[in-house]
Every structure is written in structure tokens, then in C-alpha cells.
């Protein structure tokens, strides 16, 4: 008998934040969707929205309340230009921040693009029981974030630990408040 658990598919929603992209030319969203599906997971929803705090926040908030979504991935809007507002839109929604994601993402990114990684404000956290990751808008950054950080964390077979095994307990703090 094997001690390795069976694979558990996770449901992802992908939001591309861009003033210039559409679904037909969204290479970053395509990169994430392909990798998620290739890993055996599901894409529950995929959208594009403009660089607008209220629009980004509304979509992420809705998805975080949706039973069909376990994880939200945003791509785009994490830089420093005046239009880059994804962290400002999403971070106020976090119940818990995941500072470790940003650290690991920057370490991985540094190996690929050197000090240019400091131009990203990649961030992550929990909203209720939903994981949220805000990734840069380049296909390369999305590829690196998935392949080198997130893919293993969303595979229950990854040891010593992974996100999938703790997913049933992510909203304990919310349930405790209502007891």
C-alpha cells in the first residue's frame, strides 16, 4: 500500500489585468491556463479587466466567495507605473498575507532576470478560504511562478507539505468567529 495520496484537482480562476489585451492575445493568461490544465487542475473562470482598482477588486472579491474557485491568479499590474494597481486593489482584501510567496518568487526570478526582479510587486494572500496570487504580466514571469513555485504547492503529493492538504482548514478563523 502506498503512502502517496491520490492527486486532487484544484479549481483556478485567472484574471489578466491589462488596458491593451483581449482573450485572443493574452499570452500570460494562456500560459497560466495551459500549465494549470496540463497539471491536471481546472480553470473555473478566466477574465480580462482594465487597470482599475474597483474593477480588479470586485472580480477578485466575487471569486473569493465562489465555491467553484479555490485559487485566484492575477497577471499584470504589479509594476511601478501609474497604471499598475493590482496590489492596491487586492491586498486590502487579504485576511492573511503570504509574504513567503513574494520572497520565493523574487529569488526564482532573480535567477532568470537578475536585478530586474525588483520591478515586480508580486504578492499573495488568503481571502477567506481562497488563495490569491498576483503575478507580473509577462508570460515568462507567469511560467516561472507556476513551474518553479506554485505547481508543487498545488500538488498534494508534494512533500514535505503543500497547499492542497491545508485547504480544508483555510477558513477556520472565519468559522470560529461565527461559533
Written overview of the protein:
With 179 residues, the chain is α/β, with parallel strands linked by helices. Helix content is 40%, strand content 18%. The protein has helices at 27-38, 53-65, 86-90, 99-113, 139-153, 163-166, 172-178; strands at residues 11-17, 42-49, 71-75, 96-97, 123-127, 130-135. Helix 1 runs parallel beside helix 5 and helix 4 (99-113) crosses helix 5. The relative contact order is 0.17.
Give, in order, the helices and strands: EHEHEHEHEEHHH
* Strand portion: 15-25%
End-to-end gap: 39 Å
Helix proportion: 25-40%
Tell how many strands the DSSP assignment holds: 6
Main sheet attributes: strand count, strand direction, barrel closure? 6 strands, mixed
Radius of gyration: 16 Å
> Mean of residue pLDDT?
94
What is the compact description of this entry?
The chain has helices at residues 27-38, 53-65, 86-90, 99-113, 139-153, 163-166, 172-178, and strands spanning 11-17, 42-49, 71-75, 96-97, 123-127, 130-135. With 179 residues, it is an alpha/beta fold.
Amino acid at each position: 500500500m502506498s503512502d502517496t495520496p491520490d492527486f486532487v484537482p484544484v479549481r483556478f480562476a485567472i484574471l489578466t489585468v491589462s488596458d491593451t489585451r483581449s482573450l485572443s492575445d493574452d499570452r500570460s493568461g494562456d500560459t497560466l491556463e495551459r500549465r494549470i490544465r496540463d497539471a491536471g487542475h481546472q480553470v473555473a473562470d478566466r477574465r480580462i479587466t482594465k487597470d482599475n482598482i474597483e474593477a480588479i477588486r470586485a472580480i477578485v472579491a466575487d471569486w473569493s466567495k465562489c465555491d467553484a474557485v479555490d485559487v485566484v491568479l492575477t497577471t499584470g499590474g504589479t509594476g511601478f507605473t501609474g497604471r499598475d494597481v493590482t496590489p492596491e486593489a487586492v491586498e486590502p482584501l487579504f485576511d492573511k498575507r503570504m509574504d513567503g510567496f513574494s520572497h520565493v518568487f523574487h529569488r526564482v526570478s532573480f535567477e532568470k532576470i537578475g536585478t530586474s526582479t525588483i520591478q515586480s510587486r508580486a504578492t499573495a494572500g488568503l481571502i477567506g478560504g481562497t488563495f490569491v496570487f498576483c503575478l507580473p504580466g509577462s508570460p515568462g514571469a507567469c511560467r516561472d511562478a507556476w513551474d518553479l513555485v506554485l505547481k508543487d504547492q498545488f500538488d498534494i503529493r508534494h512533500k514535505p507539505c503543500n497547499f492542497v492538504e491545508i485547504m480544508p482548514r483555510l477558513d477556520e478563523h472565519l468559522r470560529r468567529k461565527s461559533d
